[in-house]
Design goal:
Order of helices and strands: HHHHHH
Helix content: 55-70%
Number of domains: 2
Distance between the termini: 61 Å
Number of helices: 6
Largest sheet: none
Length: 148
Amino acid sequence: METIAYKSKFPVLDDLRTAVKVTKAVIEARKSGATGVKVQPVKTVSLIDFGYWSWTPEALLSYPKHPSGTREAVKAVFDNLDEETKHALTFAPEDFTGGLVGRAKFWQEALKPNLTREQYSAAILTILDWCIWCAKRSNKEEITAESA
């Protein structure tokens, strides 16, 4: 499909230019053997791609303000991962408690070579704190479910 767009100070001239372009496109289509050529207005719908980062728990963590740029550095490491890994990180692990340990190890290996010592320390401590919080919360829910 061919997109035809022109802008000028005079909208009428834009309309005339567009009409000429559409007419030429219809003539070319008919020469190529097309029959029943139909011209329809098309509306453009904006598409916002949030990417995978916004859907990961790590994106919601409160990284410390010092050293500055820690959150951005973690996001940069995430952005350089392959699509399959990014997608996998948007979901909770199946074996929740064991999966959290694996997730923490993954971040440890991914962040260490790419962040400064201070940023790495701040980021990994934040991630570990979140993993511990999740594991404790998960254990409380299991105990409550078993006693019911």
